[in-house]
Structure prediction request, 117 residues.
Amino acid sequence: MTKYEEKRKAIASRLRLSREMAGLTQGQVAKSLDWHRPTVSEIEAARRRVSAEELTALAEMYGVSISWIVGEGDEESSLAADRVKLAARELSKLREEDLDRILQLVQALRAPRNHIE
Prediction:
């Protein structure tokens, strides 16, 4: 596999992940952008190139940065920031009592652990 093909597959994978984390189906994305659903499928399978305009539209719809999608810049911190945004989006969909339980779990995970050795 060439370096170009690897890059295209990485972009396709990030686009799929972003769409899923946005809670959208390929059909919903296609309808919103006035595309055919197979267009989204082909992009996510790395069988179709994505134009700059399409990439911009997808990044805006999914709420992620273009730099993260294409793997440029400080990829690790960009990925972490975008993952936090994606997690926040998912958390905002929870009922209040479920969100409270998640927050308690996060606090428990961050608390110092006493290990018995």
Q: What stands out?
A: The first helix runs from residue 3 to 21. The helical segments are 3-21, 26-33, 37-44, 52-62, 66-70, 75-91, 96-110. The chain has a mean pLDDT of 87.
